[in-house]
Specification:
homodimer; alpha+beta; Arc Repressor Mutant, subunit A; 5 helices; 44% helix; 12% strand; DNA-binding
Chain lengths: 127, 127
DNA sequence: GCACTGCTTAGATGAATGTCTAAGCAGTGC
DNA sequence: GCACTGCTTAGACATTCATCTAAGCAGTGC
């Protein structure tokens, strides 16, 4: 847990024999802390069931869907869908509210847009 | 593996007692096949080491970096970095070329932009 | 050819993750 | 209050994944 703290401007192991293999970075790359937080978000999205859940919610009229509708769209048990929804919720990608018997979910589009922006023009980011 | 093939227009389980819990989708949600392919791509990005690798490569002068430089930025062994680079390569997110002693990697920005677009305005997508 | 460096592949191992069943909590309606 | 439905939590289990060490392949230079 020390190498990633190097100033990255000191003489490099690659400079042996006087032949540098490559140039220093031209912009500030992602730090470890940001990378870990972003990876947490991407992990939440990196599952076919959760991608389809997001899509189903986004596609529903009014931008929200109840769990029963989401569950019906899969060949999975209720607890499994509930688990995936929880992962998305913990990542801040969706929010939910109980209304009487049913629980409704909707997309937190700000979070998705943040992820989108990171992959967009360039990976380096001020996050 | 059959429920997701439902037309989604037939009477629903949620209609019990005549009280529908929710409305049908307002647009075409992600299919299972597309979701699986996208999840594969997102999984490749959903790791702090791989995010930093992408960032380091993108930030390097000329848009490419050699492995030795990438390895030095982490507190991980060479084989581990090589493994992560392979994951990114198999996902089509980066490409590489050997030039003499060193191997250089660069970003396949088209792939990243595709992922970016999916998370962007809406999750529903014609992928 | 031989030693050296750079990088990848192969195989093992511990941790994280997706799924299930069983059980519990929260509303609704009789 | 009691039964019923909708949804979540808890815990178990199989699979996937990140990492390591050991070994192998590819260039370079003497």
């Amino acid at each position: 847990m020390s190498k990633q703290e190097l100033p990255a401007t000191q003489p490099r192991a690659g400079d042996v024999n006087g032949a540098a293999c490559c140039a220093p970075p031209a912009c500030e790359p992602l730090g470890q802390a940001e990378a870990e937080e972003l990876a947490r978000l991407f992990k939440a999205v990196a599952d076919p069931v959760r991608l389809r859940l997001l899509s189903l919610i986004a596609c529903h009229e009014g931008g929200e869907a109840c769990v029963c509708d989401l569950t019906d769209a899969f060949d999975l048990t209720g607890p499994t869908i509930s688990h995936h929804l929880k992962v998305l919720r913990k990542a801040g990608l969706i929010d939910c509210e109980r209304r009487g018997t049913w629980v409704y979910y909707w997309i937190n589009s700000g979070m998705l847009e943040r992820l989108s922006a990171i992959l967009g023009p360039r990976v380096a980011v001020t996050a």
